[in-house]
Amino acid sequence: MSPKGKTLKELAEHLDVSITTVSRALADHPKIALKTRKRVAEAAIEYGYVPNLAARQLVSGRSGFVGLVLPVRGPNFVDSYIGEFVTGLGEGLVEHGMDLFLATAQAKQSELSVLRHVVESGRADGVVLLRIGEQDERVDYLLERHFPFVTHGRILDEDRPLSWLDADSEAAFGQAFDLLYELGHRHFGLVSISEKMTFRHLRERGLRAAMNRRKDPSVRLDIVSAPRFDRMATLAAVNQLVHAKDRPTAIIGLFDELALTVLDQALRAGLSVPGDLSVVGFDNITASAYAPPGLTTFETSTRLAGRQIGEMLIEVIERRNTAPMTKLITPTLVSRASHGPAPATKRQSTKKQRENSP
Prior knowledge:
Layout: H1 8-15, H2 19-26, H3 34-46, H4 53-60, E1 65-71, H5 80-94, E2 99-105, H6 111-120, E3 126-129, H7 137-145, E4 149-152, E5 163-167, H8 169-182, E6 187-193, H9 198-214, E7 220-226, H10 231-242, E8 250-253, H11 256-268, E9 278-280, E10 297-299, H12 302-318, E11 326-329, E12 332-334, H13 343-356
Parallel strand pairs: 1-2, 1-3, 3-4, 4-5, 5-11, 6-7, 6-8, 8-9
Antiparallel strand pairs: 10-12
Helix pairs in contact: 1-2, 2-3, 5-12, 8-9, 10-11
């Protein structure tokens, strides 16, 4: 056997079948007997056969790749969310014989321009979109081109025919409010972003809806925001809440990175978490479990979401289902040590214990 592995012709000669039979068997063609397909697949692995992708593309009209455009905007090219998502997406694709390639949009490039190049160059059979805007020009472009794609997240117009997977963060933020309200908190802070992203809209809406359901005039909400990748502006926004004379007793981060920044700045300000301030995040990135005192957050199974989106995109590419596919995941509360009773409630509880003690 050649160290480079057998060619298709050599594999066919070894199995004593035609080249066409081997080619169709490797493509899992239904007209080839299952026993033959299995025999060919086992021999291909044993003898190190690697298909010629260029030849396959000429025959099938497909590249065998799925594209993902990543913007280079902050100091860290790959954050925890991207790392987990890309891992899962790659796993979901490779099981179906597809490979993932990453295209970067540099600081002076728009994601749309890079996406156009990926699509129009024919390098991808489909693409995945992340961090979806309330109105997203990337979605408009792909729908106009009738190009296969799936989004992690969704646009606000639910009537548009696109396939997406998303976490029900609107419900989760309502749950976060209820959790803190029951612990006596009435003054809330939210650290948000200034970009018009759909997830921002839904999370803020979920929080406000939960507040309105209580019909409690003593409930207050202070919102600060900063551009997603502007670290200095984010720090300024967080400290606006942390150092306020009338500071909220509970602060929620739109996602974990913002909540972790609140924890860090609260520590620097000499505040006790959760004694002086409760903090809650969203996403359950790895760092949230290790940042003292342990961040209360919501698990969204980012890696699994990436895997499922990969499988959804395969169906879109193969046109197995012409109707848009949508999937809404329910986040799970991960209760750690960063939340507790409101300071006033805690003092009242301690006073009662002292009064009742002998």
